[in-house]
What we know:
Layout lengths: L7 E6 L7 H14 L4 E6 L1 H4 L6 H18 L7 E4 L5 H10 L4 H5 L2 H8 L7 H15 L5 E3 L5 H18 L8 E3 L34 H9 L16 H14 L3 H7 L5 H27 L2 H30 L9
Helix pairs in contact: 3-12, 4-7, 4-13, 7-8, 9-12, 10-12
Amino acid sequence: MSSNQKKVMLSAIQPSSQLTIGNYIGALRNWVKLQENYDCIFFAVNLHAITVRQDPKMLLEQTYRAIATYLAAGIHPEDAAVFIQSQVPEHTELAWILTCNSYMGELNRMTQFKDKSAKQGANIPAGLFTYPVLMASDILLYDTELVPIGHDQKQHVELTRDIAIRMNNTYGKDLFKVPEVYIPPVGARIMSLQDPTAKMSKSDPDVSSAIYLTDTDDQIRKKLKRAVTDSGTEITDDDTKPGIRNLLAIQSSLTGKSIPELVLSYAGKQYGHLKLETAEIVVQAVAPIRNRADELMSDRAYLDSVLQRGAEKARVRAQRTLKRVYDRMGLVSPQGRA
């Protein structure tokens, strides 16, 4: 099937910190599987990252590391468009137009804005408020049909749909494709190693709470050895044992074994056995990705060539969409926009 016959699928990760095993299990691994059957667009959303103050050198390094990790995990840049958000200025151009067609009330209802702004104190960056509109631009710019997301982003895709439908009703029903949420068939919600009731986060200030895809084998083993477990000694898949359940979920995701099968294999064993074996399974998954990403990071010229090709492919699509939007809205397009 040619790429123009496949459905367009788009996904991205914010390079605000190092990617985690949770990002791999929940996103990257699924991207690799999906790229054969969909017309895929994968990028690093570095403009979203600056809604919170970033160290410039660190942001640049982490942005390139994110792209290197995409490739190391198995993304094929020959097929998918792989680029960095700031390389395609049409993202912010369309975002302004969408902002003018969004309502304060619906942005105020965004759960992530409420959570993040509560941590900012008195000086809340306006970017935190308009963040979902930039995400809507990311999606609508490419006539995206499917958006694989986690539960925490579902509200943002619903807002994207609302904006698309609103503008279609005003400027013509085919102005934007209305995207659908795509729930990948494989993917677990990986929790913090130090607080297994909270999702593992790459921006958690406690580095022991997450397994990063840059961690050494020894760091992975130490973090899992120190992972918070639960009272008792029996290894079961039980709501009262979120720490044990999290380790079982990690193992299940990486080995393909079912949770009941794993529980049965640990009958009569202690928590230490589960931690030790989970650590070795994670090491086997992370090491080749980390090592390959390290190699790619040492060849910046190659990464830049991949990103340039990906950005060029993306801009052809993005400019086509913006031309349509400008024409419908009575705006004068820049010269040369096909």
